[in-house]
Sequence to fold (237 residues):
Amino acid sequence: MPIKVLIPTPLRPYAGKKSVIEVTAQTVGEALNDLVVQHPDLRKHLFSEEGKLRSFVNVYLNDEDIRYLNKDATPVKETDSISIVPSVAGGR
Amino acid sequence: MALIVPQIVYEQIRKHGEETYPYECCGVLLGEFDEASDKAVKAVVACGNTRIDSPQNRYHISPSELVRIQRQAMLAGQDIVGFYHSHPDHPAQWSATDLAEAHWTGCSYLITSVEKGRAALTHSFLLQGQEESKSFEDEVLKLTA
Fold:
């Protein structure tokens, strides 16, 4: 089914400058896979060489961190949206 | 390239740093990217600092808060164009920790030094490059009425 993925500003240059991309998926893992199939340049910005989400990349299904759901296997429905947000931190 | 900030928003950011002193404050800059790669800030969202273990020298914005802010900004036709935080009793200069934990390339990182509770200098830095080769570059901060 179609589902929307919200792309954060730093990743848009690798996603055709789009802020929202529609993917076809039954799970979060399938959605992310379709996203990088559509926009291959995104892959290295989202995943490590081992294929795992990079440590500073957060993926949310609506308002829930997928790490606290069923990760890649989390099922999605058409009204859901997936948000990608790199972490924001620092300090002196 | 410049970060264009309305004076009222600039004062809001600096006041936040004074309010949370001696702890670091943090927040999100919302606005628009223009053709010349300038960024025009329209509004800021003050965030909580989740680094309660070391708030005097570290900050972290909850990803769930970022998700909500990003979604609402996009609905309003705006984008996240950067972030701000304070350095209590420390210069308005990026640190090694700031660079290591910065991942929003193309965005601005605004830092306000807060000395003895009063906002001092505020500087902006543009995060450039890719994750493996990222760097901060000084960015012109233009205040508008």
Q: What stands out?
A: Chain A has a mean pLDDT of 96. The beta strands of chain A are 2-6, 20-24, 57-61, 64-65, 81-86, 88-90. Chain A has one domain: 2-86.
